[in-house]
Amino acid sequence: MTLTAVDTEKPRAGSARPPRQGIGDTARAYLLNAPAMIVIGLLVAYPIGYSFWLSLHRYNLKLPALERFVWFQNYIALVGDPIFLSSLRVTVAFVVVVLGLTVVLGTALALVLNETFLGRGVLRSLVLLPWAMPGVVNGLMWRTIFDAKTGALNGLLLQLGLIDSYQAWLTSPSGAFFITAFAQVWNTLPFTVIILLAGLSTIPSEQYDAAKVDRAGVVQRFTQVTLPWLLHPLLIVLILETMNAFRAFDTIYVLTGGGPGDATNVIAVLNVRTVLTYTDFGLGSAYSWVITIVTLVISIGYISTLYQRGRIEV
Amino acid sequence: MTPETSLSRRRVLQLGALTASLPALSSVLAACGGGGGSGSGAVKFSGWDYESALVQQNVDRFKQLNPDVPVEYTPITSAQYVQKTVAEFTAGDGPDALYVYDDSLAGWVAAEYLQPLDGLPGVDDVYAGIYPSNAEAMTVDGKRYGLPYYTDSQCLIYNEAILAKAGISAPPKSLDELEQQSQRIKDAGILEFPIGLTAQLQDTWWGWAWGLVFASGGDVFDAAGNPVMDGPDPTVRDVFAWLQRAATVTKVIDPAVLQLLPVPLDDAMKNERYAFTIGARYALRDYNDPARSKTAGNLKIAYIPSLDGNVVGTVSNTRMYALSKDTEVKDQAFRLLTYLGGFDGDGVPYTAKYWFQKKGLGFPFRKLEQDPEVQAGLATFADPTIYSGLASLARPRTAIKQPWYSEYENEQQKVVQQLLSNQTSPDDAVKALSTTVTSLKQKYS
């Protein structure tokens, strides 16, 4: 893969351009793009900028008289806020588990679906289904499956003789944590599979043929051929799935509400509660920006390690 | 098919879809505050969506009686009521008359969304006719802001048939007795977990947790809103210790309660899955409805068991009707408020009685206790003496007028969940709650 920037705008040496009349190219470009820029500005930049502006304020609808600009106090307060720190710990653990499972399972599924076999099309369609499910519905579905009284899982395990009585799976901190992580993975895994499948389809079959001639085994073919070609798709997966896991809210909220105790109280749940239930828009916006900044830093980390490596090796 | 006909057909479909979506679009814009005021001089009346068809029916009756007062009633999903109403007020497009939760009242007064009702005709009479706890819940800084919609008190609800099967003739008076009776039911193989509660984290309050503390004569805060749960009075700590023991040692509280929300709990009670729960009195009307409950007639009301067996209290809540500060139709809106939360021309609190008769909702008016129709209705689902006794003992939560209450409630729910799932000790739990209050006070100072 060669990544070269195509420079089409620079005037060639010696070329004689006729002097332009009226407005110049740059001005015309700005003029023509202005409507789009205004729309983007209104729909994207303004809300983002306003949320940052709010995060610099003490702005709680319950205390309108105390509203004021406080610089970075909301951010500084987070450092000593035990609720936020606990939530951050839970979030980091959640992201690590979700990301690990997503990448491993997604790669495995993509490799399977990349093979030619009878019913591959049907299987590919089925794998995509969870992605079509909204987070709330996903949460409700897994809640029904794991229900302590009427859950399908309890019924199945009881029928198989693996448990003596129905279990309350979501009531232990570790059980609730791993079940919510699993539900999140199930919901977002198809996206990973699609990206990785697309990556796999770009690998020239000659490379595998050459590897086979060189007597490379399955593991060697994966590490020497497949993986280098998947680095860029994996980069996209890592960035987007990290963002998804950091923002995970609906599935967790429906499944556990953030409990038991603080076990699944990820930062997005805390964020939504702070803004919508406690009507604290200043602090809530600061939470949002913390999520954004952390995700940004991690993404830069991914890019700096994987992107360069991908360019050199492929 | 030619391109022209294809385009034309698509165009028709597009226009059709656009036309079809206009009502939805306009309602979305209205919900976003884009609709502005009613502009017709009508009273804009908002409430959460509990039995909205019945509310509309009652509002229609008001309009028939008061043809000069047009009313536009908007039910809002309960789960979003507070947020959406706040958003409307913030956008300057709030309702004229509205429902208010007692735990939202102080914040909404501080935010200057509401206006006091003192001095308006009939308000003094209403406040003289209701229980003091309801009057207190609707008063902020000495000013009265609401006319009562409904009130309820927490009680113990038990299944008499299940108790009888286990050879138990009377409901428990103390928490130890509750645990022993539950153990007996468990040992008899009738139910694995006799006690059910709603203990999934919610943005609403857990009445049973407050009720257990108040029943034992304790409190979580003093009158000034300072935390006392970790003070010299050990009531909160002891109640927490009992909860933890019942959930993790004797295991009479179902571990699944951490996943349980109100509707599934109601279903479980109606299907004899639990022998005991603590809930609002009006739930009994539903529990004892033969059309809806497998065990109708067997579910009885009792005082909430206390640590020492002496009943001294329970917790109440109050829902009210209030008047927007910026309403431009104050007189008309207040007439609606009086119809909904006051007395009619015959001196009867019509709407409160209407709700009791239709849905069994608790009433704040003492006068209705003596009403023969109410007495007859009450006797079909609860013991009137205990029902009234609970109303007399009940008091509102001590912290609901603090601006940080909703945050505290959520932390209390988390701590109780930690107790029920053995993640903390009662001592650590009360310390954690006290620390939470200190930090909330700092945050809100």
Automatic annotation (TrEMBL), chain A:
For this UniProt record, the keywords arranged alphabetically read as follows: Cell membrane, Membrane, Transmembrane, Transmembrane helix, Transport
| Segments passing through the bilayer | 30-49, 92-113, 125-145, 176-201, 222-240, 286-307
Query: What SUPFAM superfamilies does the record tag this protein with?
Result: MetI-like (SSF161098)
Against InterPro entries, the record matches this protein to: MetI-like, MetI-like_sf
Query: Would you tell me the Gene Ontology cellular component terms?
Result: plasma membrane
Q: Which PANTHER family match?
A: BLR7065 PROTEIN, SPERMIDINE_PUTRESCINE TRANSPORT SYSTEM PERMEASE PROTEIN
- The name under which this protein is listed is Carbohydrate ABC transporter membrane protein 1 (CUT1 family)
Automatic annotation (TrEMBL), chain B:
Q: What is this protein called?
A: Carbohydrate ABC transporter substrate-binding protein (CUT1 family)
Tell me which UniProt keywords the record has, alphabetically: Signal
Q: Which InterPro entries match?
A: Bact_solute-bd_prot1, SBP, TAT_signal
Q: Which domain of life is it from?
A: Bacteria
Q: Which residues form the signal peptide?
A: 1-30
Question: One Pfam family from the UniProt entry?
Answer: SBP_bac_1
